[in-house]
Every structure is written in structure tokens, then in C-alpha cells.
Specification:
Helix content is about 40%, strand content about 35%. It has about 200 residues and is an alpha+beta fold.
Length: about 200
Amino acid sequence: MTMRKTCFVIAMTLLPMIAMAQENAENKKLNATFGEEVSRIWDNTKRFVKKTGTAIGDEFSFRGGELKVNGTYYMPLYDTNLYNGKDAVTIRDTCRQMFNNRYPQALIQTCVIPQQDWISEEVKKDGSVVGYIQTMLCHVIAKDGEEGYINARFVFQTYRQVGHQLEIISEKWPLWERTDVIPTKDYKKLLKRMK
């Protein structure tokens, strides 16, 4: 945890205590009944705890591999190709072509496969393995004029039934799974957080 985040958490933790002390001093001046004082302190504490929780959540937010910048969740920015299998060039060329067809004016900066090999998962039926699904992801990042960037994720999947040949899952060869349109100011913050 960085020093900035640590200080932020400490400050947000102490804030309700300071507010309660200030509230107690004000209540003594007003000569409120004991029940009114307790109710007022309880309401203020709930309000400050809620604000503190929200602020801490925003500061440390992370959603399944996504990064939150200025209230928006984005996919990570991948710029290093890790896969060099025999189908790597075909996969990347397919993604580039699809991307260029949809966004002809955007300038592709990177087109990478950020994993070293196909991710393989067992397919089970009634508790027994009946096949395997292999998944490959490809990410394309492009500059969209001076205003921002586009980050697209493509999924390629194959299926192999036990004892049979590998088959391409046609609706996922590829599947354009997600697109993030990122304003330049958010893109710069994402780059800093990725390092």
C-alpha cells in the first residue's frame, strides 16, 4: 500500500471520531435530552461510516482484473505479446482486421496476446470430464484522435470432446467481447497504474 493510500485510510478512519467529539461539544451547549443526543450521535456516525466506506472503496476498487479511474472501470492495458504459437500471427491479424473494419480512423498502437499459452478448462457432465475448452484472448489498443483511446478484447475458443479432435467454436472465433473507450486523461492514469 502506498504512503498516499495509507494516509488516506487513516484520515478517513479518524474523521468519524472527530465529528463525534465535535457533536458532543455542541450537544452539551444545546441541553438536549439523553435520547436526542444518542440518536444524533448514532445518525452522524452512520453517515460518516457510509462516506468513509465509499471513499475507501473508490480508492481501492478492483473488479475482476479491472481498474477504476475517475469512476469508470477499464480493462488493463496490455502492450506485451506473450504468445508465439503457430496460430499467433493469424489470431492477431484477425483482430487487427476486425478492429480496422469497425474503427477505420483509429490508429492501432498494439495488438497483443497477453498470455503464454491457451487456457484450458475441463467441461464436466454429471461430475465426469467430457471435454475441454481452450481460450485465447487478444487485446487491441488504438489511438482515437487527440481525445482518447480504444481498448478492445477478442476471445478465441476451441472445444475438444474427450477422445475426439479439436473443434473451433464458430461463434467464438473470434468473439469481440468488450470495448473500452478511454478519454486521454483516464488513459494516462491507467498507464501510471499499470507500471
